[in-house]
């Protein structure tokens, strides 16, 4: 499949979707909610090709947004090496494992579980308006490393297998389990997202599932969105990130709810 084979309107839709996804993903995660459905609209593309191409575009945007957070975020909002490194390493391994299963396990089988988890996330964040406002570290030392590694492995596997909402789940896990503020959680999640996208690509690329021309075009748009999104989040702070988080989770709930009920 080549970009030149697609209608101009389809290409423009994919570019806009990728830029929007990059912005959303950089601020709070969940860019796959925008980007993956757009890819699935491409005539003739298989679901596993759409998932693989989404990872190629996503790794470009998350790499840029992670670097932007590391460079421009205040020191208190930058990722902690103790948290980010073990989480990213286990997430990479988990994503590779999930990607290996992606072509054999239908994503629809997981959608009711994902929907239930998102509803819990939404209720908790709405019920606790001060959650994630500041960093209040709950775990220390080996317990912190173990928790970060476990979260990375589980959410990495989900990202390789299905994808949409991974960044959102990462942010919530870092806020709810480790006690990070929303801005620092988002910055850390971007580092982990780079690893999950890489882990999935290490499986998808050799299998020939990546549509490279289309993926690279969308990657360029995703980079632009990721950079702007990260700078916006740094400038506006944790309260802004929390609001966007609630909007994205609500959108994910509506989207998955429609799928589960057969309305989409």
From TrEMBL:
Residues passing through the membrane, by range: 50-71, 83-102, 108-127, 169-189, 209-228, 240-258
UniProt KW keywords: Cell membrane, Membrane, Transmembrane, Transmembrane helix, Transport
Signal peptide start and end residues: none
Keyword Transport carried by entry: yes
Classification via InterPro entries: TM_pro_TauE-like, TSUP
GO cellular component, one term: plasma membrane
Subcellular location: Cell membrane
Pfam families: TauE
Membrane topology annotation: Multi-pass membrane protein
Stored PANTHER family: MEMBRANE TRANSPORTER PROTEIN YFCA-RELATED, TRANSMEMBRANE PROTEIN YFCA
Family: Belongs to the 4-toluene sulfonate uptake permease (TSUP) (TC 2.A.102) family.
Protein name: Probable membrane transporter protein
Species: Pseudokineococcus marinus
């Amino acid at each position: 499949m080549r970009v030149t084979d697609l209608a101009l309107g389809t290409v423009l839709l994919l570019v806009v979707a990728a830029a929007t996804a990059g912005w959303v993903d950089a601020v709070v995660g969940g860019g796959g909610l925008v980007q993956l459905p757009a890819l699935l609209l491409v005539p003739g593309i298989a679901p596993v090709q759409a998932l693989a191409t989404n990872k190629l575009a996503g790794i470009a945007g998350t790499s840029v947004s992670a670097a932007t957070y590391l460079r421009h975020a205040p020191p208190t909002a930058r990722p902690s090496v103790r948290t980010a490194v073990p989480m990213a390493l286990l997430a990479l391994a988990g994503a590779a494992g999930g990607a290996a299963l992606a072509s054999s396990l239908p994503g629809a089988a997981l959608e009711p579980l994902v929907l239930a988890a998102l509803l819990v996330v939404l209720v908790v964040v709405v019920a606790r308006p001060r959650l994630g406002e500041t960093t209040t570290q709950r775990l220390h030392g080996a317990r912190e490393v173990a928790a970060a590694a476990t979260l990375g492995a589980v959410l990495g596997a989900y990202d390789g297998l299905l994808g949409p909402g991974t960044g959102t789940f990462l942010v919530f896990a870092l806020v709810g389990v480790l006690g990070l503020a929303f801005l620092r959680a988002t910055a850390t999640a971007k580092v982990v997202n780079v690893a999950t996208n890489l882990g999935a690509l290490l499986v998808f690329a050799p299998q020939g599932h990546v549509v490279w021309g289309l993926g690279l075009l969308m990657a360029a748009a995703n980079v632009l969105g990721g950079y702007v999104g990260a700078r916006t989040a740094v400038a506006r702070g944790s309260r802004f990130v929390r609001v966007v988080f609630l909007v994205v989770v609500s959108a994910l709930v509506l989207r998955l709810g429609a799928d589960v009920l057969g309305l989409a």
